[in-house]
Amino acid sequence: MIAFWSNRSGAGAVMAAPLLFIAAAVAGLVIDVGFAYRENNRLLTIAEAAALAAATFIDSTDRASALTAAQDLALRNAPLSKSLINRDDLVFGHWENGRFTEVGSINAVRATASMTPTKGNAFRTAFAKMFGSDHWSLSRSSVAMLGSQPLCILVLHPTHSDALDIDPGA
């Protein structure tokens, strides 16, 4: 009986089991965060495209056509996603000194592409479920305005951050 209690073989396996579980959980969270980051980049591209499409309607009072144009571009950038942009996500307002406000003369539009539980398209996590979070809300916004200067649009890649570069006066 004394030999049984003094035998240390297999103690490493008992100690390694919880560490393996923790390592797997951390790796899973890293994967979820990476996919969420990629999805955020896609939402930003969609918001920028939708804002540019709706900006052509700044001088018009036809907000329904602006919404239709924005939603059309959202569906073109994400064909399998539904309701990324709805009526409340398209706001016409005033852009000045790097700030967007909903008051003043209308010269800009802000489009917000989002994935939320209320829209029924929330980002589903794969590994964060172990910690009680089976979905995350993601949202990205972009502001576009029409000006008298020429506009240069450069699109490098549809899924990388900063893939869409818009330079006025270029």
Descriptive account of the structure:
With 170 residues, the protein is α+β, with helices and mostly antiparallel strands. It has one domain. 38% of the residues lie in helices and 24% in strands. The strands form three sheets. The chain has a four-stranded antiparallel β-sheet with strand order 2-1-3-6. Strands 4-5 form a two-stranded antiparallel sheet. The chain has a two-stranded antiparallel sheet with strand order 7-8. The model has no long low-confidence stretch (mean pLDDT 83).
Bin the strand percentage. Answer: 15-25%
**Strand order across the largest sheet:** 2-1-3-6
Q: Give the overall pLDDT as a whole number.
A: 83
Secondary structure category: alpha+beta
Main beta sheet? 4 strands, antiparallel
The Cα radius of gyration reads 24 Å
Number of helices: 3
Q: What is the general shape?
A: elongated
Number of domains: 1
Helix content: 25-40%
Quick one: how many beta strands? Answer: 8
Cα distance spanning the termini = 85 Å
